[in-house]
Amino acid sequence: MARRTKTEAAATREALLDAAEEVFLEKGVARTSLEQIARHADMTRGALYWHFRNKADLFHAMLQRVRMPFQELVEEVGDPSLVERPLEAIRLACLKGFERLEQPRYRRVHAILIHHCEVFGDIDPLAMQNEMAEEACGALIDYFGCAARLGHLRPGISPEVAAELLQAMLGGLFHDWLRNHERFSILERGTLLLDTQLQLMRSPPSG
Amino acid sequence: MARRTKTEAAATREALLDAAEEVFLEKGVARTSLEQIARHADMTRGALYWHFRNKADLFHAMLQRVRMPFQELVEEVGDPSLVERPLEAIRLACLKGFERLEQPRYRRVHAILIHHCEVFGDIDPLAMQNEMAEEACGALIDYFGCAARLGHLRPGISPEVAAELLQAMLGGLFHDWLRNHERFSILERGTLLLDTQLQLMRSPPSG
DNA sequence: CCTTTTACATACAATGATGTATGGATAATG
DNA sequence: CATTATCCATACATCATTGTATGTAAAAGG
Q: Which GO molecular function annotations are given, in alphabetical order (chains A, B) (predicted)?
């Protein structure tokens, strides 16, 4: 066995992460051994233990490739006029999120995080989900608060309730789809549900 | 060690199931050994292997104690006038569900099923969740279809979309709460979100 | 009251996964 | 070009868990 060049080594690292994604998704994190991952990448545990300290470290690196905070999605849309249309900002950010999730890597890793792993080592998936939820809900409250001040939000529904409502709906859709992505397209159904929900919460046209 | 009477044996079986609930919830299903469960019930693996074939069998028995199909919740309300008020039937069934979930046993077992276990043996938690979701969604479509025919559902929103919307919201709330039940009361927030959502989807008063 | 089954506890063998230690061949570095 | 650090394979020791086999004392049952 010859020593690999630096780029080759980086490639095997990526290959190991790819393999981890696939095996984790199929067998679950707890039930997959490091040897299964290594062999799925045509490597040995030696390679794996060289690139990562242990399974938790590998898992952490796997997550690192798909960070997707809600605020980034909004910024990525990059439309400055959205400041005056917060409901549209929410809509476009969610659509961006849906598109991201249709990429296999994003879908797989999130499915693993949410449906195919338990606590182990220093990894606490529920804490991570909590962080994600907190971040998203906080952002939503800001945008809905802005919408309320602009009179875009139906009176009688507070920004907090609007945010909790939408976050619950999005979260439910998210979990549901990640459980079996072949049943429906997250982009299609997500767009439909999101639009109707926003329509329901929008201020009715006066006059 | 003396042999126990039949009722004592049934009690130890329940104690083992109780212990399984607690340890599963704390450590996750995959990371808890049968010995940990047995010792947490002040028993040995001998007792566990006598009452259950293996961990999967124990898990299955644990689930059996908290079956809660959506239709049963509606029937349990037992108000015959609900046939003419399908939206109210949905509401009351959900409230019944919320109340159930506040009982520690129901909360724990569902939290385990959804957040603290992976596939193992012949246990596929995602398939179980799929079944639950299918059943609930089917029932919701029926009720919303009935509501639409009675003119109770806001025009422009189909029964299917209404059902998917509500199911996504309820599911999101469900998952969110089960992740950390101390953050809020499922009954309180659930009632609030459910009522506002149903209010939004209800047909506006004509005239 | 005698036998049989029950309801466990204890002991044992087998398995598999983990982490580390070691070795080796070559790319990187000066 | 010599040296060193890198990248990985192989081998080994350890540990935890599982399933089963065996023992046993008392409850069931006649």
A: DNA-binding transcription factor activity; transcription cis-regulatory region binding
CATH 1.10.10.60 fits B6-64, yes or no: yes
Nearest nucleotide, CA B36 to C1': D17
> Is the C-beta of residue A194 closer than 7 Å to nucleic acid chain D?
no
Per-residue pLDDT tens digits for A26-80: 999 999 999 999 999 999 999 999 999 999 999 999 999 998 878 888 888 888 9
Q: Is B123 helix (H, G, I), strand (E, B) or coil?
A: strand
Report d(CA B40, CA B34) in Å as an integer: 10
- Determine which of A164, A177, A195 to mutate to test the interface with B (most B C-beta atoms within 10 Å): A164
Task: Check whether residue A47 has its CB closer than 7 Å to nucleic acid strand D.
Answer: yes
Domain spanning B70-201 has what CATH number? Answer: 1.10.357.10
User: Do residues A12 and A26 make contact, with C-beta atoms less than 8 angstroms apart?
Assistant: no
pLDDT digits (tens, 9 = 90+) for A177-200: 999 999 999 999 999 999 999 999
Task: Find where tokens 């019930």 sit.
Answer: B41
A177 vs B contacts (CB less than 8 Å):
none
From the list A118, A165, A196, the residue facing B117 with the nearest CB is A118
Chain B residues near residue A182 by CB distance under 8 angstroms:
none
What are the tokens at A87?
């409901």
Domains of chain B, by residue range, sit at: 6-64, 70-201
